[in-house]
Amino acid sequence: MDIIGYILRIAPVIENIEKIDNNSINLLSLFIFNSHLSIYQVYIKMTSILKISYKVVHQKVQKLIDLGLVERITDESIISKKELEKGAKYYCLSEEGIFALFYNLDVLFNPPYYYYDQSDIAKETQKLLNILPDYKKEIFKNHKDCQFFNIFLYPWINMDTVLNLDEKTLDKIVLSLSEYCNMVKNYVLSFPIQNLKSAGKPSHTLSIDNKIESEYNTDKEVEFSLPSLMEGDYIIITNPLLSFLNQLFPFESEKVNVKKMVDHIDRNNNDDKDDKQVSSGKYHSFLISSAASSRINNIQLIYNNQEKKLNIISIKKDKISRIYLCSTNDSKVTLSMDKTLNYFLEGLDLSTLYKKAVFSIVINKKNQDNPIFKDPKFKEMLIQMKDSLSN
After folding, report:
1. Is 317 exposed, middle or buried (0-12, 13-18, 19+ CB in 10 A)?
2. Does position 96 have pLDDT exceeding 60, yes or no?
3. Is 261:285 a contact under the CB 8 Å cutoff?
4. Whose C-alpha in 52, 173, 226, 246 is 20 to 30 A from the C-alpha of 332?
5. pLDDT over 90 for what percent of the chain?
6. 381 neighbors 374 (Cβ within 8 angstroms)
Protein backbone atom coordinates (compact mmCIF):
# COMPACT_ATOMS: atom_id res chain seq x y z
CA MET A 1 0.00 0.00 0.00
CA ASP A 2 1.42 3.38 -1.01
CA ILE A 3 0.95 6.68 0.81
CA ILE A 4 -2.14 7.60 -1.24
CA GLY A 5 -3.82 4.26 -0.55
CA TYR A 6 -2.98 4.61 3.12
CA ILE A 7 -4.37 8.16 3.29
CA LEU A 8 -7.59 7.06 1.61
CA ARG A 9 -7.99 4.27 4.14
CA ILE A 10 -7.52 6.38 7.26
CA ALA A 11 -9.31 9.50 5.98
CA PRO A 12 -12.66 8.56 7.63
CA VAL A 13 -10.94 8.16 11.00
CA ILE A 14 -9.10 11.45 10.56
CA GLU A 15 -12.39 13.20 9.86
CA ASN A 16 -13.78 11.78 13.14
CA ILE A 17 -10.57 11.87 15.20
CA GLU A 18 -12.00 14.24 17.82
CA LYS A 19 -14.82 11.77 18.54
CA ILE A 20 -12.32 9.24 19.90
CA ASP A 21 -12.34 9.86 23.65
CA ASN A 22 -9.84 8.72 26.28
CA ASN A 23 -12.02 5.80 27.36
CA SER A 24 -11.95 4.44 23.81
CA ILE A 25 -8.18 4.92 23.59
CA ASN A 26 -7.63 3.14 26.92
CA LEU A 27 -9.76 0.21 25.81
CA LEU A 28 -7.98 0.20 22.45
CA SER A 29 -4.69 -0.20 24.30
CA LEU A 30 -5.70 -3.78 25.18
CA PHE A 31 -5.10 -4.60 21.51
CA ILE A 32 -1.56 -3.19 21.68
CA PHE A 33 -0.24 -6.14 23.65
CA ASN A 34 -2.67 -8.77 22.32
CA SER A 35 -2.54 -9.87 18.69
CA HIS A 36 -6.29 -10.52 18.79
CA LEU A 37 -9.17 -10.63 21.26
CA SER A 38 -12.80 -11.65 21.31
CA ILE A 39 -15.33 -9.41 23.04
CA TYR A 40 -15.61 -12.02 25.79
CA GLN A 41 -11.84 -11.98 26.32
CA VAL A 42 -11.97 -8.18 26.61
CA TYR A 43 -14.74 -8.62 29.19
CA ILE A 44 -12.65 -11.05 31.26
CA LYS A 45 -9.65 -8.71 31.25
CA MET A 46 -11.77 -5.71 32.26
CA THR A 47 -13.64 -7.52 35.06
CA SER A 48 -10.33 -8.43 36.67
CA ILE A 49 -9.94 -4.71 37.31
CA LEU A 50 -13.46 -3.24 37.24
CA LYS A 51 -17.00 -4.22 38.09
CA ILE A 52 -18.62 -4.04 34.69
CA SER A 53 -21.30 -5.98 32.81
CA TYR A 54 -20.74 -7.90 29.60
CA LYS A 55 -23.39 -5.73 27.90
CA VAL A 56 -21.44 -2.54 28.66
CA VAL A 57 -18.17 -4.11 27.47
CA HIS A 58 -19.88 -5.24 24.26
CA GLN A 59 -21.10 -1.68 23.65
CA LYS A 60 -17.61 -0.27 24.24
CA VAL A 61 -15.95 -2.72 21.86
CA GLN A 62 -18.70 -2.16 19.29
CA LYS A 63 -17.86 1.55 19.39
CA LEU A 64 -14.24 0.71 18.51
CA ILE A 65 -15.50 -1.43 15.63
CA ASP A 66 -17.84 1.32 14.40
CA LEU A 67 -15.00 3.86 14.49
CA GLY A 68 -12.81 1.45 12.50
CA LEU A 69 -10.17 1.25 15.25
CA VAL A 70 -10.34 -2.55 15.46
CA GLU A 71 -11.26 -4.97 12.69
CA ARG A 72 -12.56 -8.52 12.41
CA ILE A 73 -9.89 -11.15 11.80
CA THR A 74 -10.54 -13.11 8.63
CA ASP A 75 -7.26 -15.05 8.56
CA GLU A 76 -7.89 -17.95 10.92
CA SER A 77 -4.25 -19.08 10.75
CA ILE A 78 -3.31 -16.55 13.45
CA ILE A 79 -5.97 -17.91 15.83
CA SER A 80 -5.24 -20.98 17.93
CA LYS A 81 -7.17 -24.18 17.43
CA LYS A 82 -8.55 -23.93 20.95
CA GLU A 83 -9.87 -20.43 20.28
CA LEU A 84 -11.40 -21.49 16.96
CA GLU A 85 -13.32 -24.27 18.70
CA LYS A 86 -15.16 -21.66 20.76
CA GLY A 87 -16.65 -20.16 17.62
CA ALA A 88 -16.10 -16.57 18.78
CA LYS A 89 -15.39 -13.56 16.56
CA TYR A 90 -11.89 -12.18 17.02
CA TYR A 91 -10.70 -8.62 16.49
CA CYS A 92 -7.31 -6.96 16.13
CA LEU A 93 -5.88 -3.47 16.03
CA SER A 94 -6.50 -1.87 12.60
CA GLU A 95 -4.35 0.60 10.67
CA GLU A 96 -6.84 3.26 11.75
CA GLY A 97 -6.41 2.20 15.37
CA ILE A 98 -2.61 2.40 15.18
CA PHE A 99 -2.87 5.88 13.68
CA ALA A 100 -5.25 6.97 16.48
CA LEU A 101 -2.89 5.65 19.17
CA PHE A 102 0.09 7.56 17.81
CA TYR A 103 -2.06 10.65 17.31
CA ASN A 104 -3.38 10.53 20.88
CA LEU A 105 0.03 9.43 22.22
CA ASP A 106 -0.70 9.46 25.97
CA VAL A 107 -1.47 5.75 26.21
CA LEU A 108 1.82 4.89 24.46
CA PHE A 109 3.77 6.67 27.19
CA ASN A 110 1.67 5.70 30.20
CA PRO A 111 0.32 2.15 30.53
CA PRO A 112 -3.42 2.01 31.30
CA TYR A 113 -4.54 -0.09 34.25
CA TYR A 114 -5.33 -3.01 31.92
CA TYR A 115 -1.61 -3.47 31.37
CA TYR A 116 -0.80 -4.18 35.01
CA ASP A 117 -3.01 -7.24 34.97
CA GLN A 118 -1.59 -8.22 31.59
CA SER A 119 1.95 -8.00 32.97
CA ASP A 120 1.05 -9.56 36.31
CA ILE A 121 2.71 -6.61 38.05
CA ALA A 122 1.34 -4.64 40.97
CA LYS A 123 1.02 -0.86 40.83
CA GLU A 124 4.15 -0.10 42.82
CA THR A 125 6.24 2.81 41.61
CA GLN A 126 9.53 0.96 41.25
CA LYS A 127 7.99 -1.97 39.43
CA LEU A 128 6.15 0.44 37.14
CA LEU A 129 9.42 2.15 36.26
CA ASN A 130 10.92 -1.21 35.41
CA ILE A 131 8.16 -2.22 33.01
CA LEU A 132 7.81 1.12 31.20
CA PRO A 133 10.60 0.55 28.61
CA ASP A 134 9.17 -2.87 27.71
CA TYR A 135 5.63 -1.52 27.58
CA LYS A 136 6.61 1.23 25.14
CA LYS A 137 8.00 -1.38 22.75
CA GLU A 138 4.81 -3.47 22.73
CA ILE A 139 3.19 -1.73 19.78
CA PHE A 140 6.38 -1.99 17.73
CA LYS A 141 6.90 -5.64 18.62
CA ASN A 142 3.33 -6.84 18.10
CA HIS A 143 2.40 -4.78 15.03
CA LYS A 144 5.66 -4.53 13.11
CA ASP A 145 4.03 -5.48 9.80
CA CYS A 146 1.53 -2.62 9.78
CA GLN A 147 1.49 -0.07 6.97
CA PHE A 148 1.93 2.80 9.42
CA PHE A 149 5.47 1.63 10.18
CA ASN A 150 6.15 0.74 6.54
CA ILE A 151 5.41 4.31 5.49
CA PHE A 152 6.57 6.43 8.42
CA LEU A 153 9.27 4.42 10.22
CA TYR A 154 11.04 1.86 8.03
CA PRO A 155 12.37 4.36 5.45
CA TRP A 156 14.83 5.63 8.08
CA ILE A 157 15.27 2.88 10.69
CA ASN A 158 14.83 -0.89 11.06
CA MET A 159 12.47 -2.48 13.57
CA ASP A 160 15.24 -4.66 15.07
CA THR A 161 17.06 -1.46 15.99
CA VAL A 162 13.94 0.09 17.53
CA LEU A 163 13.39 -2.93 19.78
CA ASN A 164 16.94 -2.60 21.14
CA LEU A 165 16.91 1.11 21.90
CA ASP A 166 16.99 2.79 25.28
CA GLU A 167 13.81 4.40 26.56
CA LYS A 168 14.86 8.00 25.88
CA THR A 169 15.66 7.34 22.23
CA LEU A 170 12.48 5.33 21.82
CA ASP A 171 10.47 8.28 23.20
CA LYS A 172 11.94 10.52 20.49
CA ILE A 173 10.85 8.07 17.81
CA VAL A 174 7.33 7.91 19.24
CA LEU A 175 7.16 11.73 19.32
CA SER A 176 8.31 11.92 15.69
CA LEU A 177 5.64 9.42 14.61
CA SER A 178 3.03 11.42 16.50
CA GLU A 179 4.17 14.54 14.64
CA TYR A 180 3.65 12.69 11.35
CA CYS A 181 0.08 11.87 12.43
CA ASN A 182 -0.69 15.52 13.19
CA MET A 183 0.79 16.62 9.87
CA VAL A 184 -1.24 14.05 7.92
CA LYS A 185 -4.42 14.91 9.82
CA ASN A 186 -4.09 18.65 9.20
CA TYR A 187 -3.32 18.17 5.53
CA VAL A 188 -6.11 15.69 4.87
CA LEU A 189 -8.65 17.99 6.53
CA SER A 190 -7.49 20.89 4.36
CA PHE A 191 -7.55 18.94 1.08
CA PRO A 192 -10.68 17.83 -0.82
CA ILE A 193 -10.12 14.12 -0.29
CA GLN A 194 -12.76 13.31 -2.90
CA ASN A 195 -10.05 14.00 -5.50
CA LEU A 196 -8.15 10.92 -4.41
CA LYS A 197 -10.99 8.41 -4.09
CA SER A 198 -10.42 7.03 -7.56
CA ALA A 199 -6.63 7.07 -7.56
CA GLY A 200 -5.33 4.68 -10.18
CA LYS A 201 -8.43 4.93 -12.37
CA PRO A 202 -10.32 7.79 -14.04
CA SER A 203 -12.93 9.24 -11.69
CA HIS A 204 -14.80 11.04 -14.46
CA THR A 205 -14.89 10.67 -18.22
CA LEU A 206 -16.02 13.58 -20.37
CA SER A 207 -16.76 13.09 -24.04
CA ILE A 208 -16.16 15.89 -26.50
CA ASP A 209 -19.83 16.06 -27.38
CA ASN A 210 -20.58 17.49 -23.94
CA LYS A 211 -21.53 14.30 -22.12
CA ILE A 212 -20.13 13.33 -18.74
CA GLU A 213 -20.08 9.87 -17.22
CA SER A 214 -19.65 10.01 -13.46
CA GLU A 215 -18.66 7.32 -10.99
CA TYR A 216 -21.61 8.52 -8.94
CA ASN A 217 -24.06 8.00 -11.78
CA THR A 218 -22.86 5.37 -14.26
CA ASP A 219 -26.30 4.24 -15.42
CA LYS A 220 -26.96 7.22 -17.66
CA GLU A 221 -25.11 10.08 -19.30
CA VAL A 222 -25.53 13.59 -17.99
CA GLU A 223 -25.48 16.84 -19.91
CA PHE A 224 -22.18 18.64 -19.52
CA SER A 225 -21.86 21.85 -21.50
CA LEU A 226 -19.06 24.18 -20.52
CA PRO A 227 -19.24 26.64 -23.46
CA SER A 228 -22.98 27.16 -22.88
CA LEU A 229 -22.47 28.16 -19.23
CA MET A 230 -23.60 31.76 -18.86
CA GLU A 231 -23.34 34.46 -16.21
CA GLY A 232 -25.77 34.35 -13.33
CA ASP A 233 -26.77 32.54 -10.15
CA TYR A 234 -26.97 28.74 -10.22
CA ILE A 235 -28.29 26.14 -7.79
CA ILE A 236 -25.60 23.47 -7.66
CA ILE A 237 -27.74 20.34 -7.54
CA THR A 238 -29.66 21.30 -10.68
CA ASN A 239 -26.57 21.94 -12.81
CA PRO A 240 -24.49 18.85 -13.76
CA LEU A 241 -21.29 20.83 -14.31
CA LEU A 242 -21.50 22.55 -10.92
CA SER A 243 -22.50 19.28 -9.25
CA PHE A 244 -19.38 17.71 -10.75
CA LEU A 245 -17.18 20.55 -9.46
CA ASN A 246 -18.82 20.33 -6.04
CA GLN A 247 -17.61 16.73 -5.78
CA LEU A 248 -14.04 17.95 -6.26
CA PHE A 249 -14.11 21.19 -4.27
CA PRO A 250 -17.21 21.45 -2.04
CA PHE A 251 -18.76 24.90 -2.39
CA GLU A 252 -20.39 24.70 1.07
CA SER A 253 -23.31 26.58 -0.42
CA GLU A 254 -26.41 25.60 -2.42
CA LYS A 255 -26.00 28.52 -4.80
CA VAL A 256 -23.05 30.01 -6.65
CA ASN A 257 -22.49 32.96 -8.94
CA VAL A 258 -20.91 32.36 -12.36
CA LYS A 259 -19.14 35.13 -14.24
CA LYS A 260 -18.28 34.40 -17.86
CA MET A 261 -15.00 35.97 -18.83
CA VAL A 262 -14.37 37.19 -22.35
CA ASP A 263 -13.53 34.35 -24.75
CA HIS A 264 -10.08 34.98 -26.15
CA ILE A 265 -7.34 33.62 -28.42
CA ASP A 266 -3.90 33.30 -26.92
CA ARG A 267 -1.29 34.38 -29.46
CA ASN A 268 2.41 33.68 -29.00
CA ASN A 269 5.52 34.47 -31.01
CA ASN A 270 6.81 31.61 -33.13
CA ASP A 271 10.46 31.98 -34.17
CA ASP A 272 10.15 29.26 -36.84
CA LYS A 273 7.53 31.29 -38.70
CA ASP A 274 9.25 34.67 -39.01
CA ASP A 275 7.87 35.89 -35.68
CA LYS A 276 4.34 35.82 -37.02
CA GLN A 277 1.52 35.82 -34.47
CA VAL A 278 -0.11 32.37 -34.54
CA SER A 279 -3.12 31.08 -32.74
CA SER A 280 -2.37 28.49 -30.07
CA GLY A 281 -5.98 27.80 -29.19
CA LYS A 282 -9.28 29.36 -28.22
CA TYR A 283 -10.16 29.55 -24.52
CA HIS A 284 -13.41 29.90 -22.59
CA SER A 285 -12.88 31.26 -19.07
CA PHE A 286 -15.33 31.29 -16.15
CA LEU A 287 -15.15 32.45 -12.54
CA ILE A 288 -17.43 30.67 -10.05
CA SER A 289 -17.87 32.29 -6.63
CA SER A 290 -19.55 31.03 -3.48
CA ALA A 291 -20.25 33.99 -1.22
CA ALA A 292 -21.48 31.77 1.60
CA SER A 293 -18.27 29.74 1.77
CA SER A 294 -15.64 30.54 4.35
CA ARG A 295 -13.03 28.17 2.90
CA ILE A 296 -13.29 28.48 -0.88
CA ASN A 297 -13.25 31.95 -2.37
CA ASN A 298 -13.79 30.91 -5.98
CA ILE A 299 -13.12 28.37 -8.70
CA GLN A 300 -11.80 29.33 -12.11
CA LEU A 301 -12.40 27.24 -15.24
CA ILE A 302 -10.24 27.67 -18.33
CA TYR A 303 -11.24 25.48 -21.28
CA ASN A 304 -8.85 25.09 -24.22
CA ASN A 305 -11.10 24.34 -27.19
CA GLN A 306 -8.19 23.28 -29.42
CA GLU A 307 -6.48 20.90 -26.99
CA LYS A 308 -9.76 19.82 -25.42
CA LYS A 309 -8.33 20.45 -21.96
CA LEU A 310 -10.12 21.92 -18.95
CA ASN A 311 -8.05 23.53 -16.21
CA ILE A 312 -9.88 23.71 -12.86
CA ILE A 313 -8.32 26.09 -10.35
CA SER A 314 -9.62 26.27 -6.79
CA ILE A 315 -8.54 29.43 -4.99
CA LYS A 316 -8.77 28.90 -1.27
CA LYS A 317 -7.53 32.03 0.52
CA ASP A 318 -3.74 31.80 0.09
CA LYS A 319 -3.75 28.29 -1.37
CA ILE A 320 -4.32 27.24 -4.97
CA SER A 321 -5.35 23.73 -6.11
CA ARG A 322 -5.22 22.67 -9.75
CA ILE A 323 -6.87 19.75 -11.51
CA TYR A 324 -6.95 19.03 -15.23
CA LEU A 325 -9.41 17.37 -17.54
CA CYS A 326 -7.30 16.44 -20.53
CA SER A 327 -7.78 14.64 -23.84
CA THR A 328 -6.80 10.95 -23.90
CA ASN A 329 -8.04 10.12 -27.42
CA ASP A 330 -10.17 11.60 -30.18
CA SER A 331 -13.45 11.31 -28.30
CA LYS A 332 -12.73 11.28 -24.58
CA VAL A 333 -11.44 13.68 -21.94
CA THR A 334 -10.38 12.08 -18.65
CA LEU A 335 -9.56 13.48 -15.24
CA SER A 336 -5.78 13.48 -14.98
CA MET A 337 -5.24 11.90 -11.55
CA ASP A 338 -1.46 12.29 -11.67
CA LYS A 339 -1.80 16.07 -11.52
CA THR A 340 -4.08 15.76 -8.51
CA LEU A 341 -1.86 13.25 -6.72
CA ASN A 342 1.29 15.26 -7.39
CA TYR A 343 -0.35 18.31 -5.89
CA PHE A 344 -1.47 16.32 -2.85
CA LEU A 345 1.98 14.81 -2.29
CA GLU A 346 3.68 18.21 -2.47
CA GLY A 347 2.33 18.92 1.00
CA LEU A 348 3.43 15.53 2.35
CA ASP A 349 7.18 15.95 2.30
CA LEU A 350 7.98 12.76 4.19
CA SER A 351 11.69 12.89 3.40
CA THR A 352 12.06 16.13 5.35
CA LEU A 353 10.16 14.61 8.28
CA TYR A 354 12.43 11.55 8.28
CA LYS A 355 15.50 13.78 8.43
CA LYS A 356 13.96 15.86 11.20
CA ALA A 357 13.39 12.70 13.25
CA VAL A 358 16.96 11.55 12.67
CA PHE A 359 18.30 14.98 13.66
CA SER A 360 16.26 15.02 16.89
CA ILE A 361 17.93 11.76 17.89
CA VAL A 362 21.47 12.54 16.77
CA ILE A 363 21.72 15.98 18.37
CA ASN A 364 21.62 14.50 21.88
CA LYS A 365 23.48 11.28 21.15
CA LYS A 366 27.22 11.28 21.84
CA ASN A 367 27.68 7.53 22.30
CA GLN A 368 28.54 6.04 18.93
CA ASP A 369 28.09 2.54 20.42
CA ASN A 370 24.37 3.13 20.57
CA PRO A 371 22.69 0.53 18.29
CA ILE A 372 20.98 3.28 16.33
CA PHE A 373 24.32 4.37 14.80
CA LYS A 374 24.83 0.85 13.45
CA ASP A 375 21.51 0.80 11.65
CA PRO A 376 22.17 1.00 7.84
CA LYS A 377 19.01 3.02 7.11
CA PHE A 378 19.78 5.50 9.87
CA LYS A 379 23.37 5.84 8.67
CA GLU A 380 22.20 6.41 5.08
CA MET A 381 19.87 9.17 6.24
CA LEU A 382 22.74 10.79 8.14
CA ILE A 383 24.88 10.74 4.99
CA GLN A 384 22.09 12.39 2.99
CA MET A 385 21.75 15.10 5.63
CA LYS A 386 25.48 15.80 5.62
CA ASP A 387 25.54 15.94 1.82
CA SER A 388 22.67 18.41 1.71
CA LEU A 389 24.41 20.62 4.29
CA SER A 390 27.70 20.54 2.40
CA ASN A 391 25.93 21.56 -0.79
Report:
1. exposed
2. yes
3. yes
4. 246
5. 26
6. no
Sequence-separated (6 or more) residues with CB below 8 Å from residue 315: 296, 297, 298, 299, 300
Q: Encode pLDDT of 296-314 as tens digits.
A: 568 888 877 776 667 778 7
Question: Between the CA of residue 73 and those of 10, 11, 70, 82, 100, what are the distances in Å?
Answer: 18, 21, 9, 16, 19
* Nearest Cα to Cα of residue 235 among 243, 245, 223, 226: 243
On whether the CB atoms of residues 335 and 325 are closer than 8 A, the answer is yes
* Cα–Cα distance for residue pair 333/201, rounded to 1 Å: 13
Mean pLDDT, residues 170-183 = 93
DSSP string, 223-255: E--STT--SEEEEGGG-HHHHHHHHHS--SSSE
Judge contact between 29 and 114, C-beta under 8 A. yes
Please, which residues have CB within 8 angstroms of residue 71's CB and are 6 or more apart in sequence? 65, 91, 92, 94
Q: Where are the alpha helices (DSSP H) in the chain?
A: 3-15, 22-28, 39-47, 54-67, 81-85, 95-104, 106-109, 113-119, 125-136, 138-142, 147-152, 159-162, 167-190, 240-248, 337-346, 350-362, 376-390
CA distances from 264 to 20, 167, 260, 303, 326 (A): 53, 65, 12, 11, 20
Give the per-residue pLDDT at 237: 74
Strands 255-260 and 276-289: antiparallel
Q: Top-level CATH class of 3-152? A: mainly alpha
Q: Give the integer Cα–Cα distance in Å for 122 and 115.
A: 10
Percent of the chain clearing pLDDT 70 (strictly above): 65
